Amino acid sequence: MDLFEKIKGNLGPLGKWADVAEGYWIFPKLEGELSSRMQFNGREVVCWSINNYLGLGNHPDIRAIDAQAAADYGLAYPMGSRMMSGDSDEHYKLEAELAAFVQKEAAVLVNFGYQGIMSAIDSMLDRKDVVVYDSECHACILDGMRMSLARRIVFDHNDIAGLEKGLKRATKLTEKSGGGILVISEGVFGMRGDQGKLREIVALKEYYNFRFLVDDAHGFGTLGATGAGAGEEQGVQDDIDVYFSTFAKSMASIGAFLAGDKEIMRHLKYNMRSQVFAKTLMMPLVKGAMKRLEMLKDTTHKDKLWTIVDALQSGLKERGLDIGTTNSCVTPVYMHGSMDEAMELVRDMRENYGIFCSMVIYPVIPKGMVILRLIPTASHTMKDVEETLDAFEAIAKKLKDGYYKAVEGKYTSKLA
Ligand SMILES: Cc1ncc(COP(=O)(O)O)c(C=O)c1O
To answer: 281 with 391, same domain?
Structure first.
């Protein structure tokens, strides 16, 4: 069989929606300056779907630094991988500042979070080891584990009894193999918005011998007294052995880092294959990250963000909407209706109420659930919140009254 014959016309579980949804529900184009109001499909919408938590993405000071660094260095310097020719003092300076900020001995920069954490997982584990992970961990963690030869044990999302069962099994396995145990969870789960139960997880260290890796992509900059993330918020930052965050959210940029003990970071630096054999972060991203970190330390952005989060989340709850168990900025609204109803509802929301949020469906979340996910940011205003609450109230009523039932089959009947 010709390989391409097999894959032509087979776009996979997300791609089966392509003909129906591309350009609108998936791969939509938001245009205009990054802010709480952007252009979509020719009209202004209040935008709740970008992780620009602290509003730094389009901040004039950030834009100025980014532009200056691009003028000073271009987009190429330094060239090559860090190991070969792409290292610089600035990379080390940024690593030192990041480490100090998240209260760790050392940090190591990676060029993308996805590749970085995948390689970090891969490089720490061998076939004798066991990794025990939360069932809702991000795709990059699952891919990292797929690359590694270590045994995998999954526990139900945030189910500490399940984790303990997994640890018992892992302990037996490693006693035989002579390997070690890595537990992986997230600071904030990006779809439901609930924090990983980090405190309960680290409490198990008293009984089981494991190391703990936390992906804090959504917690960094948004949680904790200083913004150092979910570990700081829950008072267990010291017990996180490997801390990870991307620059793609609060920092509104590209790049990521891992932080922990000096010797472990040194191991990662020499062994993360996606970094050792790939181009280093270019200087404008390094300089830009330094400025972003400096601004992130000014907690007025975080305070502003939380004013918006509190108004949005309490307003949704007061209007009877189900926002689940979020205890972070991520604000999911759980809807009960068919896929056609959900798609029509989102269209109504965008076209007639001027509200843009993401719709999350399988395979990003388990089958049978539809979440409308709102990401509040420091750049939103109370007016944005009020308009959004009014829209959600109206739309939820329409859904309840069966208004969207008329479209049953409108979208799903077209699926390949
Ligand atoms: C939880 C989580 N981990 C890792 C990543 C990957 O980071 P990056 O976008 O830097 O590749 C993301 C997405 O940005 C994420 O949401």
So the answer is: no
Residues 243 and 358 in one domain: no
Contact yes or no for 36/50 (Cβ under 8 A): no
Q: How far is CA 362 from CA 28, 192, 325, 366, 370, in A?
A: 18, 14, 19, 5, 8
From the CA of 249, give the closest atom in ligand 1. Answer: 14
Domain total of the chain: 2
The answer, yes or no, to whether residue 158 has pLDDT greater than 90, is yes
CB-ligand 1 contact for 112 (6 Å cutoff): yes
C-beta 269 within 6 A of ligand 1: no
CB 244 within 8 A of CB 319: no
CATH code assigned at 131: 3.40.640.10
**Vertex 337 angle, CA 335 and 338, to 5°:** 130
CA of 151: how far to CAs of 100, 128, 131, 144, 271, in Å?
33, 8, 6, 12, 20
Instruction: Give residue-wise pLDDT tens across range 291-326.
Output: 999 999 999 999 999 999 999 999 999 999 999 999
pLDDT tens for residues 11-35? 988 888 888 889 999 899 999 999 9
- Domain coverage including residue 64: 60-296
Burial class of 197 by CB neighbour count within 10 A (0 to 12, 13 to 18, 19+): middle
Atom 3 of ligand 1, residue of closest alpha carbon: 217
**Ligand 1 pocket test, candidate residues 246, 257, 375, most atoms within 8 A of CB:** 246
Does 190 lie in the same domain as 78?
yes
CB distance 216 to ligand 1 below 6 Å: no
The mean pLDDT value of the chain amounts to: 95
CATH number assigned to the domain comprising residue 321: 3.90.1150.10
Q: Do 279 and 310 fall within a single domain?
A: no
Q: 345: CA distance to ligand 1 center in Å?
A: 28
- Ligand 1 pocket mutation pick from 114, 194, 330 by most atoms within 8 angstroms of CB: 114
Q: Tell whether 102 and 209 lie within a shared domain.
A: yes
Q: Is 250 in the pocket of ligand 1 (CB under 6 A)?
A: no
**pLDDT value at 339 more than 90:** no
